[in-house]
Prior knowledge:
The chain has 13 helices and 20 strands. The protein is an alpha+beta fold and 497 residues long. The chain has three domains: 168 residues, FAD/NAD(P)-binding domain, CATH 3.50.50; 160 residues, 2-Layer Sandwich (D-Amino Acid Oxidase, Chain A, domain 2), CATH 3.30.9.10; 102 residues, Orthogonal Bundle (Helicase, Ruva Protein, domain 3). Strands 3, 4, 5, 6, 11, 12, 13, 14, 15 and 16 form a ten-stranded mixed β-sheet that branches. Strands 1, 2, 7, 8, 9, 10, 17 and 18 form an eight-stranded mixed β-sheet that branches. The chain is globular and about 70 Å long.
Amino acid sequence: MSTSYDLIVIGGGINGTGVARDAAGRGLSVLLAEKGDLAEGTSSRSGKLVHGGLRYLEHYEFRLVREALIEREVLLHAAPHIVWPLRFVLPHSPEQRPVWMIRLGLFLYDHLGGRKRLPGTRKLDLHHAPAGAPVRESFRTAFEYSDCWVDDVRLVVLNAVDAASRGAVVRTRTEAVSAHRVGGLWQVELRSPDGNTETVGGRALVNAAGPWVTRVLNRVTGSKARKSVRLVKGSHIVVRKFWQGEQAYLLQNDDKRVIFVNPYEGDLCLIGTTDISFEGAAEDVTIDAAERSYLLRAVNRYMRHQLGATDIVHEFSGVRPLYDDAAANPSAVTRDYVFDVEAPAGAAPLLSVFGGKITTYRKLAEHAMEKLAPFFPALGPAWTERATLPGGDMLGADFAAFESALGNDYPFLPASLRHHYARLYGTRARLLLEEKRSLDALGRHYGANFYEAEADFLRRTEWAMTPEDILFRRTKHHLHLSAREEAAAADQLARAA
């Protein structure tokens, strides 16, 4: 056994990186092992929202909604570059929910979480309000409320970056093959991409493997899972944005589910999600024709601009590992999180995470550390509530002022490129740009806003290895490059790896 840590975390999604960051900031030595890339599974395939979950109120999930609404404000402060306010327009459809129910739900939504920074709900006349322009004339009334957008992959990566800055060791493409308790420690066998293995020790083990949490219990630790996850597939489609303005839309479908129609990547639109029980390997999930039709039908019911399958420019599916509470309807399965702590007398503890959602990841990590605190008497206090994430340390959490200052310091940047760097990297954009004083200094131009300097920065500071890591996850350049540009960039990136 070559190295020992206080805590070993299996899983490089939002929960694993959140726990690693929190633990490292409390003074623990931490190793995070991820079998693929950071956020490669569920955490890169979300609806990309930091929200309370308005529809969860129907299922009486008041504690979860309150916690999520509070976290919404925390994340707005912590990462104003990758989290920003978004107004949602909810056209009223009396066939689904009466006005009194919508009003009551939005009243609770405005007040449960101690809203401070975001504007409250208001009623709209769609025949006169600008937000009503793309909506069919048959819909007259709407309600507008606030939630937030998040770049989900950036959130995961920045938690890993912060964890590493506090001493954690982050190992991607490193699979935990087996884990056994020996002499009061976990001995974990890790396998690297070249097939070599090593064994490391840990005083505690966290299983944050998301959809694979039960697999880790059964095949890696040999433990018997006392709780289980229910896999629910959520699919999204991307089309060209078909309305004016920055607002998003929340559409009630005829099965009483809701569909988000959100501005995405400037001139695009993200539509989702579906909720379908899923059986099979989480890594093999794909959208199917029925899901495409379901999403298109929901939008076409409300919008003047009618969409077809040929309008889809991109699509993705993810498997959400929800805690199995035995609900019959996948949409009613709780989005809350549950821990299972296995700690036989005198033995090293194993904490497994079931469920959860991106919005509450920080609180989940904090609660996980509370569960592990008895095993670490010198553990430092909770600290993440008021801390910024890397790049988020801008004065007054004022993104617009920061972007303007970045433009003053680097006047050669075109507006779109300046915005791209400011959004993805915040104050870390200065580390990327360093002393560069011209576009030529950014190196090869692959197309759109993608330059060689950014790829080098991602390899150097964010564990990016493959073209997909760079083009699809840490950035969304693949959506803005032509097919020829994307192929050329992927080829060049592969050569440079």
